[in-house]
User: What shape does this take?
Amino acid sequence: MNGGKKLKVAGIAGSLRQGSFNRAALQAAIELQPPELDIEIVELGQLPLYNDDIRVEGYPPPVHAYREKIRASDGVLFATPEFNYSVSAPLKNAIDWGSRIPDPPYAGKPAAMISASVAPLGGVRAQYHLRHMCVSLNCFVMNTPQIYIGDAAKKFDSSLKLTDAALRAELAKFLAAFRDYILRLQR
Amino acid sequence: MNGGKKLKVAGIAGSLRQGSFNRAALQAAIELQPPELDIEIVELGQLPLYNDDIRVEGYPPPVHAYREKIRASDGVLFATPEFNYSVSAPLKNAIDWGSRIPDPPYAGKPAAMISASVAPLGGVRAQYHLRHMCVSLNCFVMNTPQIYIGDAAKKFDSSLKLTDAALRAELAKFLAAFRDYILRLQR
Amino acid sequence: MNGGKKLKVAGIAGSLRQGSFNRAALQAAIELQPPELDIEIVELGQLPLYNDDIRVEGYPPPVHAYREKIRASDGVLFATPEFNYSVSAPLKNAIDWGSRIPDPPYAGKPAAMISASVAPLGGVRAQYHLRHMCVSLNCFVMNTPQIYIGDAAKKFDSSLKLTDAALRAELAKFLAAFRDYILRLQR
Amino acid sequence: MNGGKKLKVAGIAGSLRQGSFNRAALQAAIELQPPELDIEIVELGQLPLYNDDIRVEGYPPPVHAYREKIRASDGVLFATPEFNYSVSAPLKNAIDWGSRIPDPPYAGKPAAMISASVAPLGGVRAQYHLRHMCVSLNCFVMNTPQIYIGDAAKKFDSSLKLTDAALRAELAKFLAAFRDYILRLQR
Assistant: This one.
């Protein structure tokens, strides 16, 4: 398995607010990840709003750092809220900065996605827009299992710890499947 | 017709770069609009990256001003590039700031969309994500005619004036249809 | 109100099986409709699989009859299952037969959609594909309210009567909104 | 390479008409395929319109035969027209019959898609709905290259032979990429 090294996974949380359930879901993923994975959350809040005039002058340091973190990863785990039936603006912004040639850092990466929402549907519409974007990024998105965390406020406690037992088990299984998926694509 | 007043249309360009073909398409729309329309471009570059913690403290002045311009309009004309098969990050950001309750400013507005791209497909995938977002905004998007400006670099000159005669005619017709559509929904 | 005549609504159930929850949802809609509406279920099972060679020879009688029922309606109410994250094949088949020029019968009609599924998400992905198709049909789809009937097996009894009280109230409200929407577009 | 055996690819043409450009595109693919591929067109016209009551009584022989052809393949090549911004009804019908458990035949297959249309956009909206459906089928769809055959009537001759030289080269390259993609996933 990869020479004993852990698989580095870039965790991308689409929401910038402190109390984000999607960030909390990534924290839960870190807690529940199998020993072969090493999920690290990549911050998006410091990226400027995408402007191609900025890009042609050279990536600002936060954009450069972000792109290199994606590049150094063995896989990407997106956690996205659903805003207006799509991914959030900060996630779209990160995707747009991350897609530019030459050497687009997402290209060829295995990817998986989860979504959390206080509404019952759990962000399903956001995931299906994100899957389209991932074709453009040339990521290889895991088909199944899928996780939609609806009614999120009932599944995390006030310190944003994932407390729903069924969901904890489901997330652990999801992460094990993602590990297997990354390893399959690395062969 | 609306008591003789012009119909105010908020023009939303999804690209922030100076030489944007989508901004240029809105300029062409201003040039070609029927006398009943008054399209004004609304700037998006000054909006902060969406963060719900900012929202709960109160809209920053640029967000407030943006929302009020949308609210004061009789209709919205989106001009979006296609980035990663969806709308651009600045447009998604504007949509997310513009959708928040109470009093979401897009709700109930007639809307139309165009897209321009240097690639041949002209942004069609972005338009179909945007149509989903407009359901969430509760805009009423015109079904037809539709405009996809592919190979944009051949259709505007070096000063970003729309020079393609067929497209100029098509855009004028599109804007007349949008005028009729707004008036129909105002009855 | 329309000269006292009822508003004729074509009810389109995307599933052909006898025990379909989507057909049952349309039956519930008939039961719960406001007095101004007259929903009639249009059968789709007798339509041949779409083949353009058949079309050019002339619509077979079931296709012709189907198109005329849509044409005679004041609005369309779709009830679709979700198969493979989209509408069912019988519904897609009906849409394709119903879209052909000249005189496409769906053009300009107000439309609304519901979906039922034994799975928890209630068909949301099908609705968002269907909304795209309705742009092509040039239907005017109501934005809101929206109904996704998840866990359908718990909401209908063994005789397929809708028994969930909250959902009955929600459906009645949905149908009243659709009535208002049709009337608004008829002005 | 697979022990010297050819890779069997099921070619799925979404249009039933005799003069279909999508079927013609599959014929061109057969002509231009690399020596390692063996594309065979799977017929869809004999499948009944999907009805779950039929399924529970047992697959009719044409459905069974179709499912076994998919199962026996090493990969799937879809060629879809765009009808109402989505795949055609016959293709959706084939997908729905092909997705049913137990032992869904598409699960785990590498897949690629092309689309042909007499309109300029070449079926791009159909491909993006089809990509969603393929997540449900648990196919692994190649991200890139992509082929959209717009203005199809100019690219095939009257005997439906693909005559456009640039497109022939593009299709050959696409098929070589698909061969490599299948082999990668078989490791």
